[in-house]
Sequence to fold (172 residues):
Amino acid sequence: MTTKISEGPKVETRREQPYVAIPLEVEILDWNQVRGLIDEVYRWLKHHKIEPVGEPFYRYWVIGGIEEEFNLEVGVPIERMVSGDEHVITGFIPGGNYATAKHKGHPDYLEDSLYALEQWAVDEGLELDKRYEGDTEIWNGRFEFYLDKPGTGRLEEMTIEIAFLLMRDDAA
Fold:
């Protein structure tokens, strides 16, 4: 395994943050559908005269594979909640504690960093906020934030922040 974690892992607390996104279900072989959606969300924001307040992200609800579909949203944080439409939805990045790390390098090698962060959380005794419906694992907060503006720089030099929402500690 070639982990490309350049910073972290660590736990950090984040505030709830509204966003707009395009939801989709896609198999890995059709991943090209996902790549252009960041630009589409930015065009929607510009058309509605809404300024982004953070970096674009992928929010994964269900992690797919070769034969299973990924259920995800491609989104951008905004200042306050707005109304979506038939194509663009609105939501909130949940507030709470997150296990985070920064991946430096080509997104094709992100899987190793995702695994390393998840393993670190397990080793630290942290419980990731996810549930199961039958055999399907559903994440309540699994994000990849693309810290480099789309289309700038080389893919080998990208910085992607990974953030996994942790279960709330009712005793805290």
The chain has a mean pLDDT of 90. The longest strand covers residues 5-14.
